[in-house]
Amino acid sequence: MFPSQCPPEEWVTAYLGLGANVGDPQKSLTQALRELAKHPKIKITKASSLYRTAPVGLVDQPDFLNGVVQIETALPPDALMTTVLEIEKNLGRVRTIRWGPRVIDIDVLLYGMRQIETPLITAPHPRMHERAFVMTPLAEIAPHLIIPGDTKNAAQIASEISDEKSIKIVGTFLTPNSS
Fold it and tell me: Does residue 166 or residue 92 have the better pLDDT?
């Protein structure tokens, strides 16, 4: 069921950040999008380019491929987070080292314009404003989006933290509708 088939108040625009640096990162990202698109209460509406980015935190690991997707969802925030955690698990994600290598990482960046704090999810994502690998692809697909709790839009925030040496466009997401 898609947004046009449901009352508008049931569907929310959300943004997800995806990243991977182990195995075949592009394949993992594509598979994650396919799994998201299979869910009857999730519709992928936009996808950023893929960016090769230097790791943050634990720097002695391979570069990441990162991107952001805009979705429409009828899932409540905790259910959306549970869904992305299940997709990560199904794709082989094992949580061992904080900020360490990973086959897939999916973060709920924004859930509508809501500020959410539950045991399972915090939105906006607490460190998204600091990370070019999140803000650059977000600004690509939603440059005028104002982040809840901020006065600047995504493009303004991205320009303030841009790091051209560690973030480069390397391709596009192969979305479920791509060949």
Answer: 92
